[in-house]
Automatic annotation (TrEMBL):
Name of the featured protein: HlyD family secretion protein
Claim: Magnesium is one of the keywords in the record: no
GO biological process, one term: copper ion export
GO cellular component entries: outer membrane-bounded periplasmic space
Signal peptide: 1-20
InterPro entries documented for this protein: MFP_Cation_Efflux
Amino acid sequence: MKLFTSLLLFTGLLGTIARADTIPLGALGDLAVDFAKVVSTDTYPGRPLSARASFRQGEAVNLVTPYAVRQIRFQHPPGALVARGDIIARLAGPEIHHFMTEFTILQSRLASASRRYERNRELYERQAIDESTWLDISDSYYALRLEHEHMRHFYELLEPAGEDDALWLKSPASGLLQYRQPEPGLAAGQQLALIIPQDALRLRVSLPIDMGQQTQSLRIPGCTLAVESLSGIADDYFIEAWSAPLTSACQLLPGQRVMARPLLGVTGYLVPRSALIEWQGKSVVLMKAGTALETVLVQILGSVNSSYFVTSARDLSGREVLSTSASAVQGMLNGLGGE
């Protein structure tokens, strides 16, 4: 009798579906019927990707030594927050005295070249000297001026450390101090340290090319950051993206790696996993339409916790879909029977 009743119900369902893609609620008999409201959303969380807290080229202050340094003793650990003018290192060695002497001599040479430049400029304007002589004088003056400016910027960061062969080095900017302890020292022109402004730290992530333009933001534990820039050059199958600056809520250290979930700008719906069924080889949900259920085709893009993220040609915003007994209805539709 139970099998006969199920066959009758199944036959009725097939007739109803064939006619109008709807199922009267009364045709479900004693099946448990519960509904869930569809949630519309304009973002879709993609699969997590490896990201790194870093900074874009040119955004950090690069501190380069103009002379060789034999010994460096940093006063703060890497990653420490320093203010502009804070002492960050003690520089020591006989090169210190050489640099101070060289800078003093350079100042004297520049002063002399400046007087010569001004003197001969008046002569050149009166055409009392030829152009080639004036060019030699002006080239010499500007070369010395550039050299002096280069050394002066570093000189202004130095303070006496109480010894002839030692100086204190001050920070040129506020930010996070980054360095690698040199061994046994540094040659002229090498990097002493980086000062990373706090608002320069961002998430850097490689996105699949087909996902790049759709990714609006990156979500990590504690914060969500908008994607601020996207490279126009591919690296194989990926493109580089940078987020907006990190906030204090992100709690990431420079260089730290973290799994970031890209949030794509895709309009769709969240429906319970239990609401999805397969009918005639396609994914559908059973939407409540008055006193009937209507089959609505959907496309599954992915899963979010206990829900599926789907798109549909129909507007499902705020509509109710069958969330219990959907598999039983599917079984009857596919000829598998049901209780």
